[in-house]
Amino acid sequence: MTTARRADPARAGNPALLGVAGLAGLLLVIELAPRLGLVDERHLPPASRIAAALAREAVSSAFWVALSDTLIAWALGLAIAVGAGVLAGLVIGSVPVLRALTASTVEFLRPIPSVALIPLAVLLYGSSIGSTLLLVCYAAFWQVLVQVLYGVADVDPVAFETARSFRFSVWARIRHVLWPTALPYVFTGVRLAASVALILAITAELVIGSPGLGNQIAVAQASAAVPTMYALVVVTGLLGVLINLLARTGERRLLAWHQSVRGEVAL
Amino acid sequence: MRRLLAGLTAAVLAGSLAACGSSADSGGESADGGVDKVKVGVIPIVDVAPIYLGQQKGFFSRRNIELTLEAGQGGAAIVPGVVQNQTQFGFSNVTSLMIAQTKNVPIKVVAAGVASTGEAGKDFGAVVVKADSPVKTAKDLVGKKVSVNTLKNIGDTVTRESVRKDGGDPAALNFVEMPFPNMPAALADGQVDAAWVVEPQLSTIKAAGGREVASTYVDAAPNLTVAAYFTSQKLIADDPGLVKRFTEAVNESLAYADSHPDEVRAILSSYTKIDEKLRASLVLPKWPTQINETSVRTLAELGAKDGIFTGTPDLEKLLP
């Protein structure tokens, strides 16, 4: 590892700079491929036209309404899923009988792709935000639940028994032993759930037509407005990057005290 | 302590699962101050421009209707939405409504929706092929792959009728299902030999050199009623006054749209993303307030011939 780094200092370069260069390269390919006739520009317009369509979208109120609809559905769905997942995880995880009782059910329900619930969502909520929430909650809930279950299982039995022999109350045991141990797992769950929630929010809007960016993509597609469609796709991508960045920063800040973030200190 | 936790668990689990997706409103026609809140399930296409225009012009608010247009994707969700009162009215093509009727879905048409222009070559729906296609007229479609947006629906019925009238064997067509927006690319790439499309894809394909081989709606029946606004029989029984006001408002909207094409082209920018050039050039349909019953009867017969119904549609029950 160290020898490799020493042997080739030039190629490593500045990672941020390389990242920008990679992105510029991709844009260049998307700009040139249609212009050179490698792909039909009616179906994949050059990057500059997508950018122009993005600029036009950015000044329309419909775009901002759709963006906020998507963000609200995402945040609300994620909040419900995290709240429910953490609560259920802590309770199921701390009662062995419950854990055994629910294990098979969880393993059965968890792999059901959320999109398979689209017909159910349409029947229950039509093309309202409820449909989006159902899919988002379902997908995000399992991500959190499973992580919390792992977290609770990771509690040091000696610490837990010590707390018990010191006659810690139930609440104090959860607060001072269970929660700090489970917290890094909770954050992993939240980070995974945040990305999954965005995917499902866009999917629901695109397929069901509930309000949001996904629906705008579908409308652009139905209107034969191809550059606008790609512009909106780019926005969803940027949203994904932003959410991931936010989740990682939040995790580092809030878990600064934890060794998984702090780095191992030799004892 | 364990008992306490176990007791809590049941409540938490039940609560947390129920919390997922419980925040949707059921929608409805709560009348406060005499204003009825009405949701209408529509598809964001050119056909429904009159209702958007009517909303803007105040034709609905004048009749104490607070209109919300739910432009969900695809028509499939609209009928169940109306039956379950998530939306109080819906817009759907006539064949879909007849299919629902043969399955005893309790719906009834309350107003005309959209109609063919009745002019061959100048209608808002047609079968198109690539410029260099060997297909010259409808009968050449025999044995070819033709894309329609929904199988066993209005698209294949009217396309078959065009072939039948041109002297071809209507049973010998290979229909492929795909969404309208995919058709221009599918036709250009040769995935299909012909595409049954409506505006704005029709203009897009023609602008790219595509050639129209059949004005299917014109071939099916003179001045064909293509789609209609409908509601549930429950709403008709519960609130006939609201249904009546809605029908009047839709009729006023249809008449206004039919005589103000420039305003129609302008309103398209509010709910679609069709670009300005295309908005100015696309072929607008006709919006008569009368449902052409003869044409609906013809559609029913054609559909029966093609075997898309499980029974015989009862038009007395379906039409107003």
TrEMBL record, chain A:
<feature type="transmembrane region" description="Helical">
    <location>
        <begin position="228"/>
        <end position="247"/>
    </location>
</feature>
<feature type="transmembrane region" description="Helical">
    <location>
        <begin position="12"/>
        <end position="30"/>
    </location>
</feature>
<feature type="domain" description="ABC transmembrane type-1">
    <location>
        <begin position="67"/>
        <end position="247"/>
    </location>
</feature>
<keyword id="KW-0812">Transmembrane</keyword>
<keyword id="KW-1133">Transmembrane helix</keyword>
<keyword id="KW-1003">Cell membrane</keyword>
<dbReference type="Pfam" id="PF00528">
    <property type="entry name" value="BPD_transp_1"/>
</dbReference>
<protein>
    <submittedName>
        <fullName>ABC transporter permease</fullName>
    </submittedName>
</protein>
<feature type="transmembrane region" description="Helical">
    <location>
        <begin position="74"/>
        <end position="95"/>
    </location>
</feature>
<dbReference type="InterPro" id="IPR035906">
    <property type="entry name" value="MetI-like_sf"/>
</dbReference>
<keyword id="KW-0813">Transport</keyword>
<dbReference type="InterPro" id="IPR000515">
    <property type="entry name" value="MetI-like"/>
</dbReference>
<feature type="transmembrane region" description="Helical">
    <location>
        <begin position="182"/>
        <end position="208"/>
    </location>
</feature>
<keyword id="KW-0472">Membrane</keyword>
<feature type="transmembrane region" description="Helical">
    <location>
        <begin position="115"/>
        <end position="141"/>
    </location>
</feature>
<comment type="similarity">
    <text>Belongs to the binding-protein-dependent transport system permease family.</text>
</comment>
Automatic annotation (TrEMBL), chain B:
<keyword id="KW-0732">Signal</keyword>
<comment type="similarity">
    <text>Belongs to the bacterial solute-binding protein SsuA/TauA family.</text>
</comment>
<dbReference type="InterPro" id="IPR015168">
    <property type="entry name" value="SsuA/THI5"/>
</dbReference>
<feature type="domain" description="SsuA/THI5-like">
    <location>
        <begin position="47"/>
        <end position="263"/>
    </location>
</feature>
<dbReference type="Pfam" id="PF09084">
    <property type="entry name" value="NMT1"/>
</dbReference>
<feature type="signal peptide">
    <location>
        <begin position="1"/>
        <end position="24"/>
    </location>
</feature>
<protein>
    <submittedName>
        <fullName>ABC transporter substrate-binding protein</fullName>
    </submittedName>
</protein>
